[in-house]
Description:
The structure holds 2 protein chains of 2 kinds. By secondary structure, chain A is mainly β.
Amino acid sequence: MSRAQVLAPLLLALTAHxxxxxxxxxxxxxxxxxxxxLASDVRALPAEAPVAxxxxxxxxxxxxxxxxxxxxxxxxxxxxxxxxxxxxAEAAEGVARAQGARTLVRLTVDVEAGALRARGDALxxxxxxxxxxxxxxxxxxxxxxxxxxxxxxxxxxxASVGTPPTTTPPTGGPRxxxxxxxxxxxxxxxxxxxxxxxxxxxxxDEIAVLTEENVSVFTADGQLLARRELGSLPFSNATTxxxxxxxxxxxxxxRLAAWSTRRAQGEVLVLDKGRSTLRPVGTLDSxxxxxxxxxxxxxxxxxxxxxxxxxDGKPVTLLSPFTTASFASPRMLxxxxxxxxxxxxxxxxxxxxxxxxxxxxxxxxxxxxxTxxxxxxxxxxxxxPDVLRVHALNGGDPTVHEPLWQGPLPTGRALFVVTAxxxxxxxxxxVVGLSKPDGTGELFLLRQGAP
Amino acid sequence: MKSRRIALASLVLLGSxxxxxxxxxxxxxxxxxxxxxxxxxxxxxxxxxxxxxTLLGLLSRPVCAVTPEGEVQPTLARExxxxxxxxxxxxxPNAATAxxxxxxxxxxxxxxxxxxxxxxxxxxRGEGRxxxxxxxxxxxxxxxxxxxxxxxxxxxxxxxxxxSSTPGPFSAAGRGALDAQLGWPRGRPYLDRLLLTATDERGxxxxxxxxxxxxxxxxxxxxxxxxxxxxYATYLAFSPRRLPTDxxxxxxxxxxxxDLTRLFVHGPAVPMPHLLPPAxxxxxxxxxxxxPAAGPARTVTLVYDxxxxxxxxxxxxxxxxxxxxxxxxxxxxxxxxxxxxRWAKGDFELMLHAVLLPPVPGPALAVVLDAGGRKDxxxxxxxxxxxxxxxxxxxxxxxERALALAxxxxxxxxxxxxxxxxxMPEVGGLVMDAQGLPxxxxxxxxxxxxxxxxxxP
Lengths: 451, 457
């Protein structure tokens, strides 16, 4: 199945959902907002109809989406737009002139640092008869165009569409990972735990978020599927100063296990998509670390005890308590409070000692090559900005080698990272849970972008 | 919970924040704290200097704290809610805590409570004299709309007396050691232990220079401290019945508030020209009036808090300045409890009266009106203020009333102080709350740069 085919339902859902979304603007997508800004700029030039539009950068899908929406807006302004195809920005001038356009708008669109950006220029294509063979340009219209809006899940999906599968170079050199990010969901409270898994059986993962007050499930495009308040659970006698907890999508029948340290007990929940609810079906006697892995909280601390019980009931005893656990069969990763990590290549093997890890660490196959990568955030207490790094796991401590990719994250402490299969393909997406400086929370989604 | 998220957001690190630790604050360790306060503390309504309130707050906290953004953040309470607009429900960890708190508030509000902080509970039905616990909850019914009740309840004077039934962030472990309390409803402190040393100013200087302590409380502002809000307000209260009508003018014309804060009291301190401190009422000072016409010589007694060096220095200054106006001022230091008792009976001519005002204008004005002996005004002023649902409008109204009422209160505002603090670089996470008090339960030890790691940043 091609990537475009896989993403088609997602894109359809993204465009079909006019319901409020959780990102910045409640109703208008990033592509719409960017096009609106660009249309205003073109009108203000002022542009002379007909207007030709030429796009470069990003993915073909993103270029086409911005082109279509911008053309529609310009048409509504009576500017008779058309989208031209040309091998280069320079060649577009001739194509536009040949098509009878009087204005050419050349834009490069891309998703970068969480923003959907367009940069370029506008020029007049009319050539004075008295110029003869020289292709002179008119004085007007002309101008530079630079616009940027906060990216959303839709823009991110468009930007990542059509990227050819990345393969491991035969030389073992750096693989092609280039992640593009956008805000997926804004939360009123900081994240206490994060998980991803297929809760509705559609073959694609949902994203579950635990805060002090509730547990929520979101779709791949940030739509809230269901939320359950935790207020009915008894208070814990040994809570933590910071929001913390355990959250996992359990194996077997799709269930979500959630336990906030504010509460004395956790719950097992089932997603009832029809009613948009999370229905409790049981309580927890241990902290859910993974689909089948269980642990225990260190009372009052944002950490788990050093003993982990695996799916077969066998215990694994770590060197010290840990703050983060990630499982990508057969590998297991535990991040300790001092920024060190224990990476088990398989159960029962001697762990590799890692260093310089942040609490936001996870294992996942980001490039679809069948091998797991290590993702980790900064080990600093107050990084500015926090950085996500992706390391190849080739044996030994991967953090001592150059990362496959690294990039800055939005403002805030990135204490939670999970990988998720949001579109059914072999490459996993990355969801980062951020605690923002204003006391709110944010989910930041990263996808493979066009190279 | 919005308040909790704002508390997280208001983290002000006094130390370096670039240390390693998997991005999370680390637990454990002990910090040595020296202070210039008394080794033993009294009940919350009397332990009301910023330093004493801070020390008491290590062992017993009020039900909530006001964040710098003005939000209420539950601390001792599990939660504060309003089941109806006229009822506030305070849910506490257990029934014993609820009962202890109800008893403490009832005692504070009683006629023999002798505390101006009773005004914080004035909007409650029965003026707070009938607070009863229902299981682990307190249901507080208002006698008139008072949206600022929750923020008033966060005042340190409304903390329960230190007892095993009322958990605080720390518990006394003997010899000045305080151990982190695992059951503290807001979450155990990051540190395992605080080691407190009570000393004097010279002792503070010696311990600091010898690096024998990591945090010092009560240091003067000439040093590298980081003060919070200055809300410890000192007034010169006078008895209108025993002093001539131009006494206010005599004081205003002779006392230079700038002089007091610059030369006579410990910093951090600011002149307070109006009824409320500049933090709550940022109006410019009034021009100083001319001296009144000379009258017959008078002898008056000025009582002040014997435990406060600042008050002794200011009392002596007032003694000198009023002498120029024909007043012979006798000074009488008193224990704070005796001072409050004299205040409650109105048994004084002149009194230096200091109160720790809440960081919210409405409740602060209530305390000041009561401190000025005009409890009768509470029933007139507070309902009109509480009727305004918009917080900004309410605060503006309070400032307006404070200006209008200033001349009718037998109180001369002098200065407002805060708590001076300094910390070694290895101590992080010291947050000043809106009350201007440091929350040591949020402090932690920063690991040495690069400790335990070898990876790239």
